[in-house]
Amino acid sequence: MEPQIQYAKTSDGVSIAYAMAGEGRPLINMQPPGFTHAELGWDLFAEIWQPMLGKKYRAVTYDSRGSGLSDRSAVDFSMEAMIRDLEAVVERSGFESFVLASWATAVPIAVTYAVAHPERVSHLILIDGFATFSDFAQSPVYKAGVPLLDADWVIFTETFAQVLWTWADPEVRLQYAEFMRACCEPEAMRAAWKSWESRDVTALLSSVAAPTLIVHNKNNRFFPVDAGQRLAAAVPNARLTLIDDMTYAAVPNLIDAFVGEGQQREPALPSGMTAILFADIVDSTALTERLGDAGFRAKARDLDGSLRGIIRDSGGTPIEGKLLGDGVLAVFTSARQAIEAALGCGRSGDDAGLPLHLGLHAGDVIREENNVYGGAVNIASRISGLSAPGEVLVSETVRSLARTSAGVRFEDRGQQVLKGVGEAVRVWAVVEAE
Questions:
Q1: Cα gap 1→427, rounded to integer Å
Q2: The pLDDT of residue 106
Q3: Which residues, in sequence order, are CB contacts of 60 under 8 Å at separation 6+?
């Protein structure tokens, strides 16, 4: 299967080459910056990635700036530059949620991106990785490689392939040495190695929200096993798998099993985020005039009890201390559950003859006794006010979190200016599956 080579443009104007092939679930494969070539790498590592293509995954691999088919004059391997490269590929590929697999020195970049964009990364795969430069700075192999890189480019690449990675097949060694020389110029490789000294994502590890698989090769002489163990200990609910085959032939099956297992789990919101539901009776003043104050209040009390029951049944928590007058505020730990509750509330309001405005947003909230406060609560309220009677509107944040798990469709209602909110918010209408 031949990949399609395409280009993405970063926010600072650098052209990034990427290859895409296969069908199915989106997956982005991050190779170590400086060791990438979108065309040649696909052939060299075909035995690893071909099993993951076909109907299973739509896989993307890309060249960092300074290497491969990307702009090789942009020799900048800083964390900021690496994140811009990945963001450009994500945007250009059209992936809204994807599996992010990373190798070796790409691991800290993947961690940084996953923490900054939790709504994008469905599963995080960290292979032969590390959290900080000190994890491998004293490795004899790393210390031996630095002077070789400064001394002779050909000797360095052949030594790296033949000794540092301990590959037994002489033909593979030569192929990988040639591949390295095709990936970048010597000065770019030196810049890539120099950038490792500033890598440290230790403080970010506890904020990783995506289900995480950590694979570490016991035979990797560059990054010791205890570097992978430290990653596994610091990332919430991470799983560590040790392998001992330097061909990495087992990796596709490990990823596939992990992602498939993850599809059976209830997707939770990223740490610190809460899904917020506002349900408010439409035009309560007119209804009061038509039904009379006592009649309206009786129907509204009955509906209130029904809505709170639906919310609890869907795994949410009605906020008892929030006085809305003619509506209900609730919070959830799952975007899917919040959408499920909103749809149920809408049906209940219609059945009672008291149609509802329904709006959802997700973000940080301030909890105080039985109330919740904050900008995210305000946005949910404003989105609710935009909805037609019985309609459920959600923010882009909620749609991204629930797009693959809620079993519904989303219709784009465009960017909306909300009162009291500085920036316009993209809003989507929820449409139940037929």
A1: 38
A2: 98
A3: 18, 19, 20, 26, 27, 28, 29, 89, 93, 95
Q: Give 3-state DSSP helix, strand, coil % of the chain, rounded to 5.
A: 45, 25, 35
Measured distance CA(147)–CA(334) in Å, rounded: 52
Stated as kind and residue range, the H or E segment containing 278 is strand 274-281
Report the candidate in 66, 81, 6 with the shortest Cα–Cα distance to residue 36. Answer: 66
Whether the predicted model's global pTM rises above the 0.85 cut: no
Neighbours of 187 (CB within 10 A): 11
CB 129 within 8 A of CB 138: no
The arithmetic mean of pLDDT across residues 408-419, rounded, is 89
Pairing of strands 392-395, 425-432: antiparallel
**Domains detected in the chain:** 4-262 (3.40.50.1820), 274-432 (3.30.70.1230)
Task: Give the span between the Cα atoms of 35 and 147, in whole angstroms.
Answer: 18
Structure tokens at 212: 């995480």
Query: Would you call 426 helix, strand, or coil by DSSP?
Result: strand
Tell me which of 46-50, 77-81, 201-205 is least confident. 46-50
> 197: which DSSP letter?
G
Q: What are the φ/ψ torsions at residue 259 (nearest 5 degrees)? A: -65, -40
Better pLDDT: 62 or 47? 62
pLDDT of residue 324: 46
Q: Is 301 helix (H, G, I), strand (E, B) or coil?
A: helix
* CA gap 87, 98 in Å, rounded: 13
**Helix residue ranges per DSSP H, 292-423:** 293-313, 335-351, 375-386, 396-402
Residue whose tokens read 């201390």: 321
- Kindly write down the DSSP assignment for every residue of 63-97, as one continuous string: PPTTSTTS-TT-----HHHHHHHHHHHHHHHT-SS
pLDDT, tens digit (0-9, with 9 covering 90-100), for 100-128: 999 999 999 999 999 999 989 999 999 99
Phi, psi (degrees; rounded to nearest 5) at 302? -60, -45
Question: Rounded CA gap, 300 and 281, in Å?
Answer: 8
186-195 and 140-151 helices, crossing angle to 10°? 150
Q: Other CB atoms closer than 10 Å to residue 105's CB: what's the count?
A: 27
